Amino acid sequence: MDKIKVLVVEDEVLIADDICKALYELSYIPIDPAITYTEAIATIEREKPDIAILDIHLSGSKTGIDLAKKIRQSYNFPFIFLTANADSYTLHKAKEVMPNAYLIKPFSKKELYTSIEIALHNFSSQEQSLKNTNLSVVDSLFVKDKSNFKKIYFKDILYLKSAHVYIEIVLKNNQNIVTRSSLNEVIHKLNNNFLRVHRGFIINKQHLKQISNTFLIVENIEIPIGKKYKENVLKAITYI
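Above: the chain's sequence. Below: its structure in token form.
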């Protein structure tokens, strides 16, 4: 489970440095800020940020709005528009790319934190509403843990367990997260490595070690197999 990596794209160096300092104090991971569209694309390719803060007005021929369009088309991660006094035309163009949140200069550290958490929440909600099964699934998801959203890589998940109106996501290295959701909701956000094996369990097949008639072993943990899921379990594994 990793901290959130934040890219700041701002052509006023002092403002960019102040934002990065605040991000660090809020326990995010600030990436070295970018000044131009071209520099931002190179940083995105290299650093793979989880979220970006984009000044609408950038030096050069391409603006923060142009960068937002590129993020939507090619990278699909949330972004926040940073602006001061934008004219009505610019604001209209900004709305067209549907930013996940706005941040108005000047702003406080609390407002910065709130904007990031709202953006992550909005992005997560938008992803959940997508029903097209042909859409590619990324290698991670954001999960709300207390007051923050945490990035979890699929490869680190051992299994998910239902707990009334909550689910427990059990990770490698004896870590886990409890979040308000259901297995029915979360299974559509996972990739093909995940398999429902019981009314109360989804496992990651990458960590499956052993299987019997009534249970299976994920790492060293025994997980029950529900009767109605047994046939699907056998279809999903390769055996001789």
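The longest strand covers residues 157-163.
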